[in-house]
Write the structure tokens for this entry.
Amino acid sequence: MRALTVLVTALWLMLSAALAPTAAAATAIADPDLSRLVNQLAEGGFDEVEAAIGALVATGDDRVSSILDKLGSGDLFVRKADRVVVLTEAAGRELKLTDPVTGADLGMVPKAAVEKIRVNNRLRRTVAAAIGTLTLRSDDPAVRRSAAEAVMKSKDASAIPALDAAIAAEPDEGVKGVMIAARATAVMASDLPEADKLAAVETIGDLGTRDALAMLTSYTGLEGPVGEAARKAATSIESGLLLWDAAQNISYGISLGSVLLLAAIGLAITFGVMGVINMAHGEMVMIGAYTTFVVQEIIRTSAPGLFDYSLLIALPLAFLVSGGIGVLIERSVIRWLYGRPLETLLATWGVSLILQQAVRTIFGAQNREVGNPSWMSGSFMVGELSITWSRLWIIVFSLVVFAGLMLVLKRTTFGLQTRAVTQNRSMASAMGIRTPWVDAFTFGLGSGIAGIAGVALSQIGNVSPNLGQGYIIDSFMVVVFGGVGNLWGTLVGAMTLGIANKLMEPYAGAVLGKILLLVFIILFIQKRPRGLFALKGRAIEA
Amino acid sequence: MITGFLLNGFDTRARIVVAILIAIALLVPAANLMLPPDHPLHVPTYLVTLMGKYFAYALLALAVDLVWGYCGILSLGHSAFFALGGYAMGMYLMRQIGTRGVYADPILPDFMVFLNWKELPWFWYGFDMFWFAALMVVLVPGAIAFVFGWFAFRSRVTGVYLSIITQALTYALLLAFFRNDMGFGGNNGLTDFKDILGYNVQADTTRATLFALTVLFLALFFFIASAITRSKLGKVLVGVRDAESRTRFLGYRVENYKLFVWTLSAMMAGVAGALYVPQVGIINPSEFAPANSIEAVIWVAVGGRGTLVGPIVGAITVNFGKTWFTGVLPEFWLFALGALFIVVTLFLPKGIVGTVQAFWANRRRPAAPASLAPEPAE
Amino acid sequence: MTDKAEGTLLYLDGVNKAFDGFKAINNLSLVLAPGEMRAIIGPNGAGKTTMMDIITGKTKPDTGDVLFEGSTDLTRLDEAKIANLGIGRKFQKPTVFESHTVEDNIVLALKAKRGAFATLFHQTTRAEAARVDELLATTRLTDKRKMLAARLSHGQKQWLEIGMLLAQEPRLLLVDEPAAGMTDAETAETAILLREIAKTQSVVVVEHDMTFVRDLGVKVTVLHEGTVLAEGSLDAVSSNPKVVEVYLGR
């Protein structure tokens, strides 16, 4: 009962809040008075017009901004006969006149009966600023906010009084903040006394955003206390932004980590679970990317409407194509080489050369571009962080793939058989598990996952026959660093290396950062030859 | 002591191979320089240089075989040592250009002037002297291999793990040498060489001499490798390859043995690179590419690892095939190379020379089935 | 701790080793006098091999003392150092250098300087050659000296490995299942060979084969779940009810 009361009260409050501004939007000034002021726009030179604009703005009437807007765009006319300002609308050879204040029909006249109120650039600016000021009092908070932002850009000192009034009346805290900032920028551009400017610097400094920093930098060169205060505020913003920068780099790092995870996770299966060094793993990624390319080409020519779904169509296909090739490689080459890891390495390198050259022969050596569907384009801001949709989706996707693979290995019969074969091949075989098929399908699974990694990677770079080569060493590093035979290790390894790489980049540069990371891993493997999450026990030490 | 060691290495097979190599070193330049161009046995200069390149590769293959075939260390990073030796030689050749460069700076190589460098970086000092550069050709790869191996072998990184970090090593160096601010000419590397020891590198006589030197160095290192593999140390190395822990429990410090042969092999690869660069006239970061290292491994596998003649045969055969293919069917070369990797590992694990040896051993001793012969473990 | 260890050849006290929570060795204590021969028996997983690993430096114990000759702490040394102290080890699975000849296998094992440069310039001396002949005779491999070790039969490989052990001239031999995979006649001969060796050196033999242990006729230590269950003559331990329970399952 009590909850209901609260709910009803809340609803009522919300309703009244929504209705209140509408009620308050009554005309601030009687029609005739407003009409008189509007007519002033057609009198005298530009100076007089400017004064008239000021007078109009001072009324604070809601209708003023649309009238001024017409003035600015040159759509306001004056009737020659009585110097009454009118709106016109072409109607055949004649013009239909309307009263700008009341909207009343003023009848038809020939074109020659009216003349345009001329404006120059200075007036246009005045009009724009005036509209900005006026919209500061709009009913819509979004309009008020953009009005304040407009003042921030124009740095129009004349808007200060209007802003003061708006700030006093502003109910929305967020909008109020923007207005205060806008006022501060206007103050900085004005010839107000030093004390005001110091206060303004402080206000801007408190914002702590990149924009605020940009505003301040135009004053840090000034002499005297204002310049000093600006410098101080700028430094404090910069140190605050460092955190955001670090957060941005970490976000890049997570994004790189998820790419590494996608590339490495298939390898973690073939290398970690099966002990097979597959140097053609990168080519499986590359084939997945080319599958995406082919799917998009077919969609482009035959069903353009499906373009946004192209990746969803490509995912299962890439899995099947890469996985199928993987099974083929396992059955034809790798199965003869179990227990001879170094020779597997050489043979699969041979496979990788053949696959690269095959793709080059079919698709050509040049880069192919795979398009982004609309839901993967663009970016958005979180605070000072800029996040692109494609990167975000790849992070999500990599985690989904990881979780899915975990489920397959831990919860399905196939996963159970794979683990059994990994631990004791002859025992598994004695238990009736068809080990050759388990080998083939495990290898196919690893390759198929590489294929769907290719679909994702096609979204963040060009697709070329050498695509896989760029990922193979990194992927091996991830698997070895994380610990062979442990998928969690692969996840942690990928994220650690991704983030470490991006955190080092600003200081060491991209290439040197990468080199340092490789050196670090080389040293790390010396210290912990079995990686972060190594399996322990007598069995593997043998 | 040392004479005993050297005599050990000079068995019949080594004598035959060294004699053949010396004959090649003398006859090919003679056929190039002394016979008139229309003579049927005349060897054109481009062919001399091409073969010189092959023999430099053969020396690299010999170095790879010494660690892989005899000690079981599969290096996927030997192109790094090859390239480092090449860069040391390239730096000497750059300093010899002097004022004949495009910018005519007496000290700074062209690329430094282009990058607006004012002074020669410290690590370029001394490279105007041949003896210093020659020393660096072996010392730099040797030192890097020593430090790397000291860490890796001590912490008992073996097998595929070692292979992968050797690959990471050469990859890291590849990235480093691509950087302009490293001071090695960045992407373009070092090129436009003029003189070596005062002789024009383009001249026929210089090219013939470089060829002869390459083959003679190969003969020298073949002889050294033969002596090493026949010494007790060589037997310990094979022991490490076949049963590392047994060797350890016999009281041998396996890491020191590995470090010795690894460092020596790196130095050999450095010499190979130094001989290669003046003949091809350029050294750039692509020589560090991991793919090159793996190609060197396949030369050894094709020829026969664990035999000293094998890598030489393999390097020359495969590279001849590469030249032929890229001339006739360029797009098929990678198919052929890829197939070679697969076919050799699946069907010819002992390589050409190993298979021939096993065949002869069988002919001589028909009672002993060949299948019982041990295969070199990894 | 050294007081109790004084005068012993091998001294293990309170040794523990766990793999991922599994206690392979649990508070193990074992003392071996100089010149003694000891047989160690125990069911699978009793920790016999892990104990060997700990003594030879392959595995480091979590806690406990492992002393050689009463004073040398073996837990601080690596395999090569321990081997050079005079502890030789034969593996469960015969491990010889298969692509070397029988003779070269022995030559590599001969007591000599183990440094890389020493072996690089090494020339076989007459004394060494004589010692090789002697060892080949002892292990009955003289007529196979030029044969590759890979071509030896399983039993011959076991013998070659024992020969390599002797070539090291160790003070303590650790022999893991020397009779595994041998015919009865070979097993009996192996026992004779080991008894011969035990005259001059200390030997620890790990074995499953009770007939073989009986042939050796030495003090027996029974290991179970990483700890010593019983110690004494074979007859004494085999009548021990705890041992009977472990071996026969109640």
